[in-house]
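Researcher: First entry.
Model:
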Amino acid sequence: MVNSSMRLAQGAPTMSSSSPTLRTAPKASFNWLSTLYVVLIALIMSGTGWLALREGNTRYMLPFRTDHVAELASQQARLLRQQPTMENIEKYSPELATLSKGTDAQRFVDSRLIEHGLYLAQMPRLNQILLTSHIFTGVACMLLGGWQFWPAFRKRFMRLHRLIGGIYVVTVPISVLLSFAYLTVTAPHNLYTRLTAWVALWLFGTVALVSVGAAVHALKQRRIHEHMGYMALSFACMLVAPMLRLNWVMLAWLFPHIDQETLSLVTMGIMMPECLLIGYGLIHVNRQYDRTMTRRTPSDMTRIAQQTFQRAMPLWYALAAGALVISVMHFAYGLGMSGTESANKMVNAALLDREALALRDHPLVRIAFALSSSLALLLGLHLFNRLLNQAPAKTLHASLKGMARGMLILSMLAGTGAIYLGWHIGLAPAQQWLSGGTLYTTSGALILLFAAVMAGNIAKGHLAMLKESLAFLLCLLPFAPLLLIYLWVLQWLPIPADYIQQGQGYVLAAGSCGTLMFAAMFYAVLGQASREHG
């Protein structure tokens, strides 16, 4: 955040003096955990930034220092395959050497990362300039970006906080635009993670640009709570590359027998919710729960968004009803993806068979999962619409509390069913069935997480946080019908057959099931909880 305010009167427009105020006091443990959370993220990102700086200064600058870089890279790669020692890996790539220290050197030597490094050494000069420039401008974000979300640091070193924020809002757009230019002149098959990464980089980059622009606008409007939220969202979007590499190491610990290429596909499937949850955590720990806050009036954008959402309620109900029909047809009475023509075109047969077998062997679970997730979505939409009309000062009405409890029970059934099915599809990835039950398991765990948060908010009567947790649940519940919809859409796109054989079609569809979480993140930035405690 470029700026902050110690006075709420300057931080944002407020209601009249008669507006109710909020007095809450967090436990000391929350403050310690919040500090630990932010500092840990900042340290990890600073470490990855330092590593990227080393990699850029050696490997990526090499083409500009010698005319024989392609020959040199080929010699290093040949030597590395013959003698996969840490010394040879360090010469080839400081980044790979660091990753190998956390796992196994042979894992990366046997992967396509070596061939990808040869492409980087031989690609056109324009591509080299764009990629190298992107790396060096992105380094500033990784080295410094995380520290601006540490409340104690910001309060004590406000000038330094503003300096870091200023560097951030300048370098992030430049780095993102350079990555867009690089992606424009680089075919997806020339990226290590190929089509899935190509699409993800465009998506995250676009949201990062929008978020930084919105953060600067909110700062000018002195809406500091929105500024902080937008900055956290932009930072989450910039975590894609660092988290990709960290996930390689963590997944290798969990599945040491699985090859690097398969684990990379799994990473692309879980990276979106992972990055957004980190961003949401930064929003949460920067809220001022220990201060007396005057409720701020919603911004014009917030009012417009709420009015648009509520006017479109018939459309949302229709879409939820459509999700119910798809879930009942293909998950209650059907056997998942195997019952659709598009999935048979886009998904590996081994994965289709494993999902069908798990659904066939557990009919009660699949029926309960399909019905509970669909009914929770319909009930949640109705509840969310009612809560948006509820005055902030009032306590939760008894009928709404009963509806919230019903929504909570259905969500817990849906999350538990998803984890159970994912477990039986198989948590361990493999070349034959790609990421296995990762989509079911991850989605189910996230549903249970926000259901638990919702339960706590119901017990506390915290209306603002109840709406926020409900927004995340609404975005997570329809993952199963969304998977089938995305596969249906992808079948009409000119995706090469070898991409589909490598699992890119399924991973792209499965990874896209989390895109609705962006809507929940924007609600977290603009919603009542941020206005009361931001």
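Researcher: Second entry.
Model:
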Amino acid sequence: MRFAIDRYAVGTEKEVSASEFEGQSYIPARKERFYCPECGELVYIRNGQYNVSHFYHQEKTSRTPECDKRVDGRSELTISQRVGLPLFITQIGSENFQLSIGFPALGSKTLDNAAKFDCTVKISSYQQYRTVKVNQSNFLSDNTTLIPIDFIPLYGRNYSISIEGRTPLYDLQRKWSDYADGFESNGAIFSYSETGGKKVRRGDSISTNRYYYAVVKNDFLYHSSISQTTIGKVIINKTVFKIIKFQIDVSVDSKRDFTLISSYMKSNFGVWLLECPPELIPVWPPVVQQDYMIPVKKDSNIICVVSSGNDEPNVYSYSGNAVYRKEVKNISKGIHTVELSLGLYPTVLSVDRKYVGREVTFIAKTLQHSGYSYCFSYINSAGEESELTKIRKNDVAKGFILKSNSKFDIYLGTSEMVYKRFSVREQQTSITENQGITEISLIIGSNVYDCIKFDNDITLDTDITIFSQTIITSARGQLIPIPVWVNHLLQYLRNNQYEEIYQAIVGTMVNNMLHIETVRQLRLLDLSIGISNNK
């Protein structure tokens, strides 16, 4: 193999080429730092007089030839085919969760062709399987469709995804994959939101000081640096798996504890622990996340700060079957940015690693108005009907009935940018009780038709004190230039006499810069108030 994952220090990783070590007779920790990007197992580097430098598996298995082909490139595969279909857990009750596989949007034309040729997707593992007809009744044309499943493969194996029909459809095969990631010996790790999360793919990583879900058959690791709470369950293979919400708070300075927790995560869940999450942080203009894409204003150039534990981070961009390195600018010591020029087609990016399943997609979309007359109204818990634009926060908290003359999706969002999605496919749809909602977005097709914002609840003194303390404790780690929208936010806070929060923010500034985590917290506040949107 030409490429491997280099874990050259505790809590770090980057993708490297064997050619980077050409001619080096001494490579520190060479027998314990390189890992296969596909199977995640230890690999070794071989360079010498008679060999082109390359990585190889010390203990070859049945998966080794497949690893070699995938890592060194199979140009006919798209990124979806390479990383597989994602797994999700979604909350379906107060303590019950559902396991699902996510199928990316195909578009109306492909779905109609699939129905015409009687195509069926089959999700299988050993003797268990589920089949679903591919048509517009079962799959969304413009958003990821979650297909519930109640079984998992043998530990360490993957789901098999196959398409059956009278004729193969090229578009369908390219946009989906022939597998989905399975579970490891003690379960799987998922990203966290109030309504569920996406599985962290085998070989990928999690980071400290963030919440995640652990779906476990047995107990989770008890450690003083891990806070954990059991919040529900999911039935898989007729077995109860616990859903645990957890957060790891440990520094690489505590090498023994960090290594112990990282080793546990690797052996039980197939994921690694990093101190700094590899990600892109949009600085300007503001972006809104819908599904796995992030729509922004048409023809916008997006400036993103590159978060990475590496001194020289890499950002990879994908086009069809090919992958390229984006230009990353080092604007000052330890601060890197990347600029994206968006158009009609999605821009897919990943930080520090290729084909790992944590890619993020940017796309520029404009609000298109149709000549069709949309009618939306709601009936509150008291049985009173009004226009949807007049809905109150209290009505959402108690639940309501939504009336519509069109199919669309409604997103209920909190100030923490956690969104709950409801698909409206009938004239009347019951929307359950939802607390803490600050905005409602109506999504028709790929566009935001309307956005209803509620007054923010930052008026309580306790909220102000808690948030001020959050700002103070977030002031650590990497520094970045202060985004333009932060100045608008500061002006709003001072004009509205939120002096405690204002002083907390100003107190964390260092040479006209802010810490990345502080910027994240301020972005949540900014979105809840809507300052930069109004500007």
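Model: Note on the second entry: Residues 255-269 form the longest helix (15 residues).
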